[in-house]
Amino acid sequence: MKKEMSKTYSPKEVEKKTYQKWQDNGYFKPEVHPDGKPFTIVMPPPNITGQLHMGHAFDGTLQDVLTRYKRMDGYAALWLPGTDHASIATEVKVVDKLREEEGKTKKDIGREAFLERAWDWALTYKSRITNQLKELGASCDWSRERFTMDEGCSKAVNEAFVNLYEKGLIYKGSRIINWCPDCKTALSEAEVEYETRQGNLWHIRYPLAEGNDYLVVATTRPETMLGDSGVAVNPNDERYAHLIGKTVILPLLDKEIPIVADDYVDMEFGTGVVKMTPAHDPNDYEVGLRHNLEQIRVMNDDGTMNELAGKYVGMDRYDCRKAVVKDLDALGLLEAIEDHEHNVGECYRCSTTVETMTSEQWFVKMEDLAQPALEAVRNRDTEFVPDRFSKIYYNWLENIRDWCISRQLWWGHRIPAYYCTECGEMVVSKEAPTKCSKCGNDTFTQDEDVLDTWFSSGLWPFSTLGWPENTEDLKKHYPTSVLVTGYDIIFFWVARMIFMGIFEMKETPFKDVYIHGLVRDSQGRKMSKSLGNGIDPLELIEEYSADALRFTIITGNSAGNDIRWQDDKMESSRNFLNKIWNAARFVLMNLDDDIMNKKAIAQENLENTDRWILSRLNNLFAEVNHNMEKYELGIAASKIYDFAWNEYCDWYIELVKPRLYGEDSPSKVAAQVTLHEVLEGILKLLHPFTPFITEEINSYLPGTEGDIIVAPWPHQKDENNYPADEKEIIFLMDVIRSIRNIRAEMDVPNSKKSQLLFISDREESTQLMKNSLDYLMKLASVSSIKTIEKSDVKENYVSAVVGDLELFIDLDELVDKEKEIARLEAEAGKLQKEIDRVNQKLSNKGFTDKAPEKVVQAEREKKQQYEETMEKVQERLNYFKA
User: Fold this and answer.
1) pTM score, two decimals?
2) Residues 6+ apart with CB under 8 A from 230
């Protein structure tokens, strides 16, 4: 005998014990289906810089739904979890903590002591993030959990670095890079966020070295002119043809710099003359290489001016800008200042304005890596869902520059390059060298820089499976099945995983890339600390339950689109879960203990309502499977919701109640078995979306063997299709709705019964109506039914048409004449007051002339609505008074 369900569902009691049971039984391991086809997802590793936010909850829920679905469908499902060391972000956090708690800088304590603190931080937050994912219900295989700086992943990083270096795809050189003066490190292009800002365009006169004339250049960064080593014009610009090869005097520093001709210069923009600062602008850098212009870097790493800036040495870059503009103006060399809107690059971590400057860094040559990655998506070896996001991918890779991978930080994978302390010979090696091949010295220093976080993240789909070792996990689970991630990191991460996977593994790392949007607030704004509009998913779990949060996330989601967060949707999800709980409780209260032994009796005695709901469930299996395979998770969840709430709870349960309360007959058994079978099907379909409540209800169901997390996923069966019964019951439901609508319009209470009259030309419809009298009496407050002819129809009959049926109800049966007249007269009085008020407002020219047109139009629409309602009320009054 099964235990009895409590009256209300208590998620706090259920969630913790259920999750522990799943873990104890090893259900999260792919070995639960050892012979199953592999299905693998590697978790986009959360940064160890804090706790989970709504974006993680969104991302994690989508992955868990897919994993649970495939696990139930017999796959060897592996959702591999892990966290990212987040080089810059974590270092910033640890530096801040060190300053706030100890009043020290990282240089004060040294690299080794700083890394100890960073590892303490990492272990603390790794554990916190893991526990938060568990609260969400994440069915990850925690025994395979990885960290981008664990021993295995670190070994993979060194292996990949050396492999790329030996193929000539990694080099060290001085090139133009993005630099964050606050973090004091290089940034890749993907780590720079651009924001449109209002600024100025300063027009500056550069005097010609010969004569009294000058050229005018325009710049948004006048402080960088101190590093100018030339000016450029277009070779086809006749205005300046005679000046090519001559020189101008660089203002403030009073030195000659050449005038060069280059096709890069747009003759139509400004004066057609461009200052060249090769050390501080990527375009100028390329022009400078073509014309052998000197690279003069005038800024220090902290954004202050260096000794090459002359008298401005030591100034902050912005203070220098003001001083330069002031001095130019005093010399009469400031032609004009105009307002100018332009894009400004910011560090993606600290939002400091980025400087472009030349610096010696490590780079990955991208051309040879980008091409195979482009072909992989073009050939559909990897597919984006939705496909429109492949355009972002193409655009980034087609225009990619060499990737700057070195960072001037301490926390991260240290670059495996070593320098001989005697002769300076550089050795790139997986292990520290013991002897210099050039001079025989045995002491080396390792490169101080660490690798860009995205280097190790690019290896994630195979490093987590044991590469560079050829492990069983790697052989079985690579390539992975699908990557689930947001559109905001397609170029940060997705592209890099693809080209690194192809380079090292010779095949793309995943078949599909499922792209989701961002979780925004109710106003459509991105959630952020600065706006104070962030929502803590753990607080929502505490208040509503993990299942309610998951279901809200899924039902509001469609691939690639953002979702607007609204708390009332959480209420709706909780209400739905309570509906399922109450329905399950009702079913269990009405099942016999030996119900599972009566399936044969039930099959022989199914009625049309039973066959209808079984057929609808069977169709639902097919539809949900189709949606799940196409990653239409929100559509699948909504279909399950509609079926469970509307068809099962609101219709089928109500339709079969008279049979349940009858004698112990074959009809009752058929209803009981059908209730049980459909409830079991609903729970299985719902489990990937709401795992906790479905597992709990399943534990009460008679006949269930084992836990629902590993129960077989339902599929459509031809023998459960009953199209004729579906058609019949849908017809009956339409009849009941029509009668309810008539009664609602007449404001008739359910307790007041009425006879239903109908006209039908089809014997099947007539017979269905007669066979459905019990349903009509219970669900539509019908006292009896009667077939009539058209000649029998009276003026006081209200009617509705359903298919070939004409339905009639005698109005006199429904309404107390005197009470209805009094009610209608009161309603007419209220309406007349509203009509008078609106007429008075609209006749006031002060209102119609001065109020916004939308407001005036709204009043006109109100008037029309009131008058139409009044007309109907008067018609009803005239009828009753006649």
Assistant:
1) 0.85
2) 257, 258, 259, 260, 276, 288, 291, 293
